[in-house]
Amino acid sequence: MNERTIRKPVEIVGIGLHKGVPVRLRLEPIEEGGIRFYRIDHGVTIPAVAENVVDTRLATVLGKDGVTISTVEHLLSALSAVGIDHLRILIDNDEVPIMDGSSYPFIMLLREAGIRELSTPKKFYKIKKPVEIREGKKRVQLLPANDIRFQFEINFNHPMIGQQKYNFRFSLEEYIEEIARARTFGFLREVEYLRSIGLALGGSLENAVVLDDTTILNDSLRYPNEFVRHKILDAIGDLRLIGGNIIGEYRGIGSGHNLNHRLVLKGLEEGAIEPITIGQIPERERFLVPTIG
């Protein structure tokens, strides 16, 4: 199993969630250097690694030299699912376009680009020992495992959400069917407040599930438990900032981008995450690691 980039450049135009302005995003193949964002309007490259995270309040935001790129998690989730190791992402504004609020449009863009396998062995990041971050009732964990698993639980005091729990053992096919189409969600009262301070200007029922105090304002959900599935989608994107695909188990309870980021930093600082190649995995365990893409 070798590293991957895309076969040809592709681009897409969409609306930024917060500023509500058109954003052009272009993906270009490279053979080394990891996943790197490039702000065309500032001439600044921002590698997609945990040390470059500068904000996690409303989305995962990368920054360098005073230049930022917001809402990277859905695109990174798709890149992680397809197993892309090296890519240059050109963007002409400070937000990745929100598209339909899920990662599915980016999966389709990657399908259009095609996948090119490189000559270098693919690097995974194996969870060696448990790592945990707690904040009140919220909790995130990374646990050793010989495959790739995600488990999430949420509990909202809302009749359309309530308590939801979902277990997901990774494969690309299952990701596309069970995770990729799950949209971001928010509450009408929060949207109204954000707009009053100049944020969420691009948000609409076309790119998010919006709830008032009692019901969903959209026509329907894509999954009965779309909310918890989107949390897994986000977590996959946030964990991609480790530097590549993990081998291990992620568990989250009521957490979000901030705890995910702190979990990644703690795991890296404590040496709980070990970079390995497929050749370093015992042969009896290799069948447990899904073929990425």
> How large a portion of the residues is in β-strands, by DSSP E?
35-45%
- What helical percentage do the residues reach? 10-25%
Q: How many DSSP E strands?
A: 19
Shape: globular
N-to-C series of helices and strands = EEEEEEEEHEHEEEEEEHEHEHEHEH
* Arithmetic mean pLDDT: 93
CATH topology of the largest domain, what is it called? lpxc deacetylase, domain 1
Number of helices: 7
For the record, the count of structural domains works out to: 2
How can the largest sheet be summarized? 7 strands, mixed
N-C termini distance? 11 Å
pLDDT < 50 stretches? none
CATH superfamily of the largest domain: lpxc deacetylase, domain 2
CATH class designation of the largest domain: Alpha Beta
Structural class: alpha+beta
Per CATH, which architecture of the largest domain?
Answer: 2-Layer Sandwich
List the quaternary state of the chains.
single chain
Q: How would you characterize this protein structure?
A:
This protein is of the alpha+beta class and 293 residues long. It has two domains: 2-120, 2-Layer Sandwich (Ribosomal Protein S5, domain 2), CATH 3.30.230; 124-286, 2-Layer Sandwich (lpxc deacetylase, domain 1), CATH 3.30.1700. 23% of the residues lie in helices and 35% in strands. It contains seven helices and 19 strands. The strands form five sheets. Strands 11, 12, 13, 14, 15, 18 and 19 form a seven-stranded mixed sheet that branches. A five-stranded mixed sheet has the order 2-3-9-4-5, covered by helices on one side. A hairpin with a 4-residue loop joins strand 4 and strand 5. Helix 1 packs across helix 2, helix 1 (73-82) crosses helix 5 (226-239) and helix 5 runs parallel beside helix 6 (257-269). The longest helix has 14 residues, at 226-239. The protein is globular.
